[in-house]
Each structure stands twice: as C-alpha cells, then as structure tokens.
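#struct-pred
JK: can someone run the complex with manganese (II) ion? inputs below
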Amino acid sequence: MLVVMQAHATDEQVRAVCQKIESLGYRAHAMPGATRTAIGITGNQGEIEPGTLDELAGVQEVIRVSKPYKLVSRDVKEDNTVIAFPGTKATIGGKNFAIIAGPCAIESREQAFAVAERVCRAGAQFFRGGAYKPRTSPYSFQGLGEVGLQIMAEVREQFGMKIITEAIDNESLDLVEQYADVIQIGARNMQNFSLLKRAGRAKKPVLLKRGLSATLEEFFMAAEYVMSEGNYTVALCERGVRTFADHTRNTLDLSIVPAVQRLSHLPIVVDPSHGTGKRNKVTPLSRASVAVGADGLIVEVHNQPDKALSDGMQSLFPEQFDDLMVQVRQIAAVVGREIVGIGSSPKQKQAEVAPASVR
Ligand code: PEP
Ligand code: MN
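RT: done, structure tokens with the ligand placed:
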C-alpha cells in the first residue's frame, strides 16, 4: 500500500500518518518527492481497511501497489534517487556520471596507492577495491581483511576519493560500514537475505550487484530487502550474467539499464570489467554504458595487471583507463551528463563521518 500525501501536506501531517501506520504494526517509509511525499507501507499482508488512513489530515489517496517490489518502484517515488556525499560534488545518480575505479582487490599499500594516484588523476570520484574477496576457489587470495580497509581509508585521506568495498557476510559488513563510504554487495550475495537485511540497517549507501542469473524482478526484490529495513541509499549495478556465450566471462546486459529506469527510481551503474572479463572489451562497453544512460561505471584498474592477485585479465593498465576517461567524457557530454571533480572541501574530514544522503 502507498499513501499519497497532498502537495501542501505539512511535515507534521506526514509524521502523523507514519505514526498511525506504525501503530497498526506496519512499517512506514516516507519518500519525499519534488511535488509531494508518498509513504510506502511494508509489513502488511493484505489490504489495510479503507478509511483507516485516507481520512487522516493531508492524505490525498491510498493506493494499492500491485508490484511485488514497492519501495524500489517509481510508484512510490517518481523522481530519480540521487545519492549525495556531503563535502564533495560526487553523486551516484543525477546529472553527474559516477566514476568508480580501482583494483579488484587491495593487495598492499603500495599497490593501492599506485592505482589510486592514477585513477584519481584521470578523474575517478570513487576508489574501489576488495578487502574481502568472494572467490570461486577457497585456495585463491581472499583479501587482506581489515588491513585492506585501513589502506582504503588512507587512500581516501590522501586523495579525497570516496571508497567503496565489498562486505561478504554480516561480520565483514560491520567493519566495512565503519570504514567505507559505500558498501558493495557482490553478485554471489545478491540473494543472501540476511546480509541484505543487515545492509538495510547500515548507515551507508549500498551498491548492489546483480546476481549471476538474476532476473530484473529478483534484482529489484534484493534491493527491496535493503530498503525495507530503512536504507534508501541503494544503487544497482549491472555486472553481466551467465549465458551460453563463451567469448566473454559474462554477458553484459546493457538493456537492463532502461528497463530499470522505467520501473525504478534507483540509480544503476555498469561494471564492464566483470561484465566482459577481458581487458580489450572494457573500454568499448564503457562507451556503450554511458550511451545507454547508465548513472556510472565501476572499472577495475591495476598498476601491474599481469601480477594481480585477482581479475588481472580484465584489469586495465592505468594508461588504458586514461584513454577510457577521455572517451567516456565525450559521450557523457552528448547524453547530457557531466563528470564532476570530487571537489573535496576543507570539510572533507567531517564529510567522512557524515552519512550520505538521498534526495
Ligand atoms: C568485484 O567487484 O570484484 C566482484 C567480485 O564483483 P561481482 O560480485 O560482480 O563478481
Ligand atoms: Mn573483481
């Protein structure tokens, strides 16, 4: 169910409706929009008795949301979600085209700084890198754990880029939430429902990657898990799905970008690195991602890809990333997007502790 408030409804009226919903044992999710606030109701099994809410002051109408996903849907929030990072100009969603780059895994301080220096110079606003790696083999490099997170925090301190890193279970999420600016949930965990709920209680934005064979609806339902716990700062990420094609590691499904945007207000970024698994295909598909209307890119870059401890084959050399940025900037301009500098203010330190906001 969805309560649509009148355009001139006061904050107090919104609060009163939320309180009423909670008193009925449900959860209220107020979603302010440009013209009006909508309040999503979750936790109810059936319809709420007519008259219970539509008689309250400031309520325009109470409507049934027929889709299984609600908070993700444009029915609940018409305007695009823009995740802002206080103290910087960077956003995920909105006019800015988000650039997230870095190695697959943080391997050492030297490696992280070498890559960070290059991607920052080329224009990345966010630095990626795994401290906890979900590897197919238990014998492969599993990540540096908290040491990796500390290195990322140093990268933020030094370069001003916001940091994004993956949590693979509830334990690592506690730590990732402390250190990172964005919590990544990997493809293999897209339906790890307890992890999604934990991410929903986190105070940091979540980048949710599409599962290896997830349909659009399953992808949305995973995001709904996070949002239903009260975290509305969610960005989706297309990273390729498993198909019969064997010329690439995965098949990058760019058609999901307009499909997401039609039904949902959440931003969607594209990962052409995992989406193709091959270095020579990353730049062409980055161009296509901008053109198709994605809200950003997440790209793997390594200072020595042939020595990388994970995903070397798909990691760009820094010079290739420079070139990618030149091309992406040109296409971004054509589709009405811009790539802002991170623009860290002297308040950067403060911004690091301030939670990201959604507008
Ligand atoms: C990654 O970003 O390095 C990663 C493991 O991605 P995915 O979960 O999409 O495989
Ligand atoms: Mn990787």
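RT: quick notes.
The mean pLDDT is 94.
The chain has eleven helices and 15 strands.
JK: thanks, will look after standup
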